């Protein structure tokens, strides 16, 4: 298959080869890339020149895919990458690795232990993945009140941020959340069949499929023995609309 579009060219014959030629969106110069069996990788750009590798044996590339630089030797035994100011080593990928630069510091010995921190974004720790997690997530522009969560998956988990608290048991079946400052609470027992939710702008009750009621964002819906009986009422500043559906 071959495609042409302005100054771009693309050709492929799966699984034998894939070739493309286009203008690089960062440098504005023309370049081409070729990937073909049995693992030959080639590319040429004005910034990086001609580059070639033989996957999985050895290769070194600049401006390759999403990477500023990528080096592999006997992949996945050794992988080095640079992307957006962050440098990563994996020996071998994805078991042992570490990353640093541009506000990030992370390291992992998967699945025993993982630690990842991005300044102003999050701080995450995992033991015996996916069993135990402890995370701090920060909102952009507000790092004073982080969202803190921990979970012993799938048995129990907790989340808090400001006055908000939530607890999960046997994820995702049972959960309770509350925020006294927002006059909000919600209960799942079990999700998604039974849910009760109350707040200043939401009123929701569900015992599915027998009965459900929702009043939120100007929309009221009620159902009995879903999908046999459904009632819907929409109210907005410009119109009001109601509908009834009865099956069969």
Number of helices: 0
Biggest sheet layout: 20 strands, antiparallel
Succession of helices and strands: EEEEEEEEEEEEEEEEEEEEEEEEEE
Question: Shape from CA axes?
Answer: extended
**Unreliably modeled segments:** none
Assign a percent range to the helix content: under 10%
How many angstroms does the end-to-end distance come to?
49 Å
SS class: mainly beta
Strand residue percentage: over 45%
Question: Mean of the pLDDT scores?
Answer: 91
- What Rg do the Cα atoms give? 27 Å
> How many beta-strand runs?
26
Please describe what this structure looks like:
- With 248 residues, the chain is mostly beta strands.
- The chain has a domain at 8-65.
- It contains no helices and 26 strands.
- The chain has strands at 2-5, 8-13, 17-23, 30-36, 40-45, 49-54, 58-64, 67-73, 78-83, 86-90, 96-101, 104-109, 113-118, 122-127, 132-139, 142-152, 156-161, 164-169, 174-179, 184-188, 194-198, 202-207, 211-216, 219-224, 229-235, 240-246.
- The strands form two sheets. The protein has a 20-stranded antiparallel β-sheet, with no helix packed on it. Strands 1-2-3-4-5-6 form a six-stranded antiparallel β-sheet, with no helix packed on it.
- β24 (219-224) and β25 (229-235) form a beta hairpin.
- It is extended.
- It starts with a strand and ends with a strand.
Helices and strands in order, then pairings?
Blueprint: E1 2-5, E2 8-13, E3 17-23, E4 30-36, E5 40-45, E6 49-54, E7 58-64, E8 67-73, E9 78-83, E10 86-90, E11 96-101, E12 104-109, E13 113-118, E14 122-127, E15 132-139, E16 142-152, E17 156-161, E18 164-169, E19 174-179, E20 184-188, E21 194-198, E22 202-207, E23 211-216, E24 219-224, E25 229-235, E26 240-246
Antiparallel strand pairs: 1-2, 2-3, 3-4, 4-5, 5-6, 7-8, 8-9, 9-10, 10-11, 11-12, 12-13, 13-14, 14-15, 15-16, 16-17, 17-18, 18-19, 19-20, 20-21, 21-22, 22-23, 23-24, 24-25, 25-26
């Amino acid at each position: 298959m071959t495609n042409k579009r302005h100054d771009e060219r693309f050709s492929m014959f799966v699984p034998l080869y894939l070739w493309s030629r286009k203008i690089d969106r960062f440098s504005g110069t023309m370049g081409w890339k070729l990937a073909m069996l049995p693992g030959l990788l080639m590319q040429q750009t004005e910034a990086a020149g001609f580059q070639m590798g033989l996957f999985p044996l050895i290769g070194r590339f600049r401006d390759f895919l999403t990477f500023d630089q990528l080096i592999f030797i006997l992949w996945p035994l050794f992988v080095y990458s640079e992307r957006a100011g962050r440098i990563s080593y994996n020996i071998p990928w994805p078991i042992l690795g570490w990353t640093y630069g541009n506000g990030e510091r992370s390291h992992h010995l998967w699945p025993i232990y993982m630690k990842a921190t991005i300044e102003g974004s999050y701080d995450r720790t995992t033991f015996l993945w996916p069993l135990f997690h402890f995370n701090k997530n920060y909102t952009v522009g507000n790092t004073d009140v982080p969202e803190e969560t921990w979970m012993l998956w799938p048995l129990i988990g907790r989340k808090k941020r400001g006055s908000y608290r939530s607890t999960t048991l046997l994820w995702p079946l049972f959960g309770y959340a509350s925020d006294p400052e927002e006059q909000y609470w919600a209960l799942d027992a079990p999700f998604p069949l039974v849910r009760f939710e109350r707040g200043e702008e939401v009123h929701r009750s569900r015992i599915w499929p027998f009965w459900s009621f929702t009043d939120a964002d100007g929309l009221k819906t009620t159902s009995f023995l879903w999908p046999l009986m459904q009632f819907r009422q929409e109210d907005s500043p410009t119109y009001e609309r109601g509908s009834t559906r009865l099956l069969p």
